[in-house]
Design a protein that fits this description.
about 575 residues; alpha/beta; Rossmann fold; GMP Synthetase, Chain A, domain 3; 5-stranded antiparallel sheet; globular
Length: about 575
């Protein structure tokens, strides 16, 4: 049997998907109800039939189709079918916690109102929540701009439509697909630092980023087995895991995020059972995986070669501990890949190639905080360890600017700006925010970082920096010190500044804990922060587990936590 021909460069996702349908890869979906496997070619036939049903309900160029449901075969088929109609897909977030159902309904109502889809496909599991969507079309957008009047979207049962499509013999033609500049995805930002915004990603931008990712990690669809629990409403799950494999014909194993969160050891067991070679996750996911690996034995991870860490600030210690624990089960030395990305750049901005592993830049903390200079650490003086995140992928360019807009030299901290073909077309229905973010083709990220040896190092968000006595204190340092205290839930700590006397900010630490002696723990957190940073917290607030504000993808929300503290709403 001859090997499939190499995939040709394509302008749109539809072209890439059609070209990959004759490749031997398949999708395997894991769930409590069993395992479903579908070759990409067969899934494409189902998607063509489903696209006909969606088109008959109004889906087409210039429209949006919203999808609400867990990771499933119908969900993946509907995403591809949406692209085949020429419409853009909007995958809506699911609730992470049972206690957040009210917030989930409100968030869904607001996003449906903002996106104004022509059609809303809902998994039957979430049908009972639809009453909470009433009036969604009249909701004000996140930017305060009310979109054109439109009736509520047509609501259809996702699973019923999918089953109908799989029995149909008629198919729509994929020959007249969208153009490279047409919207493919309306991706809402995480909302970790502000109200979520709708990022419009064109087919051309998504294809460019998919090709950049596969080039950087030397992705081989003939041998790669990607395993993912990342939700499909998050850019890393939708684009980095699903779209990369769907558009190349690789092997993909998908599991619901809730299955991993309820039992983190499952991730490593899936990598073993399916011979996983590639996966990705946020830093907290790898921390949970490390704990699971240390408690288990007998796993074979010898085929695993790429573990991409992104989606939140990367703690070098987390990467080191994970690599050591996974290495005992055969994980390839140097397979840990650190990356920087954001929804506005489709997904990946910088990352290094597999094989070299983590590289740390240890800098002088005082020079970093007092002068924004990332000078190499000196013996005996406080330092900060930061992960090197690789060079830009594809045709993306990265530059660092000072507050006055001038470019700075290596090891000088400033705002990170990005330019290239993977950037967003704009924020949906928000020309003001688009004009503010995109200037002369460059995207202002709001992140602070620097370049060293042509690689990017990220220090933190500009708006989160706490200014104390002339020092620019990064909350990650405070949070790291607090997380290390016994009794504090690691990774569930937020630090921020509040106004103090004479314009001097004071530091507040908010952490989750199951401890009984809260007064003792407050003192221990204060001592740890003081020893690590030289700062004495003005307040240490301890919360019950699961109560810190988080985004739909599990990121901590510093801005929202700070506002709730100032409003006296944290208990």
């Amino acid at each position: 049997m001859n090997a499939p021909a190499p995939l040709q460069r394509a302008r749109t996702l539809v072209e890439r998907i059609v070209a990959a349908t004759d490749r031997p890869g398949a999708l395997t979906v894991l769930s409590a109800g069993g395992t479903e496997r579908r070759a990409w070619g067969a899934l494409h036939e189902d998607a063509l039939a489903l696209a006909g049903l969606l088109a008959a309900r109004g889906a087409g160029p210039g429209e949006r189709v919203a999808l609400l449901g867990p990771t499933s075969l119908p969900m993946v088929t509907a995403i591809q079918a949406t692209w085949l109609t020429g419409a853009a897909c909007v995958v809506l977030p699911l609730p992470l916690r049972l206690g957040s159902l009210e917030a989930f309904v409100d968030q869904t109502r607001r996003r449906v109102g903002h996106a104004r889809p022509v059609l809303l496909l809902v998994d039957p599991t979430f049908a009972p929540f639809l009453d909470g969507l009433s009036g969604a079309a009249d909701a004000e957008s996140h930017s305060g701009v009310v979109g054109a009047a439109r009736a509520l979207p047509r609501v259809d049962d996702l699973e019923r439509l999918w089953r109908e499509a799989t029995t149909r013999t008629s198919r729509v033609s994929s020959s007249q697909g969208p153009g490279p500049g047409d919207p493919a995805i309306l991706q809402y930002t995480s909302g970790s630092t502000s109200e979520p915004r709708g990022v419009v990603l064109s087919h051309g931008a998504v294809v460019a980023n998919v090709e950049a990712i596969t080039d950087r990690i030397a992705y081989d669809p003939g041998s790669e087995v990607t395993v993912s629990w990342l939700p499909l409403y998050h850019d890393m799950g939708l684009i980095g895991m699903l779209t990369v494999t769907m558009a190349t014909g690789g092997e993909l194993v998908l599991a619901p995020a809730q299955d991993f969160l309820q039992r983190p050891a499952s991730w490593m067991e899936w990598m073993d059972a399916y011979g996983g070679t590639a996966t990705a996750g946020p830093s907290f996911g790898f921390a949970l995986a490390t704990r699971a690996l240390r408690a288990s034995g007998g796993l074979d991870l010898s085929r695993w070669r790429v573990a991409i860490n992104g989606a939140e600030p990367i703690d070098p210690a987390v990467v080191e501990c994970f690599a050591e624990a996974a290495g005992r089960a055969g994980f390839a030395a140097g397979g840990a890949v650190c990356a920087f990305g954001m929804a506005e750049a489709t997904l990946a901005v910088t990352m290094h190639a597999p094989g070299r592993g983590l590289l740390v830049d240890e800098v002088d903390r005082r020079a970093l905080e007092e002068g924004f200079d990332a000078l190499p650490a000196r013996a005996g003086l406080p330092s900060r360890r930061l992960a090197k995140l690789g060079a830009p992928v594809g045709d993306l360019e990265v530059r660092i600017l000072a507050p006055d807009g001038t470019a700075v030299s290596e090891r000088r901290v400033g705002e990170i700006e990005i330019r290239g073909s993977s950037l967003l077309s704009g924020y949906f229905d928000d020309p003001s925010a688009t004009a503010d973010a995109l200037r002369e083709g460059w995207l202002r990220t709001g992140d602070l970082g620097y370049l060293v040896d042509s690689e990017l190092v990220v220090c933190g968000r500009a708006k989160d920096v706490i200014v104390v006595g002339g020092r620019n204190v990064f909350p990650e340092d405070v949070e790291g010190a607090a997380s290390a205290v016994a009794g504090v839930r690691a990774g569930n700590v937020v630090a921020f500044g509040i106004p103090g006397r004479a314009g001097r900010e004071r530091v507040v630490v908010v952490a989750e804990s199951r401890a009984e002696d809260l007064e003792r723990l407050r003192g221990a957190v204060g001592d740890a922060v003081r020893a690590e940073t030289g700062l004495s917290p003005a307040d240490v607030v301890l919360l019950a587990p699961g109560t810190l504000p988080k985004t739909s993808s599990g990121k901590l929300q510093r801005s929202r936590t700070r506002q709730r503290y100032l409003d006296g709403e944290l208990a």
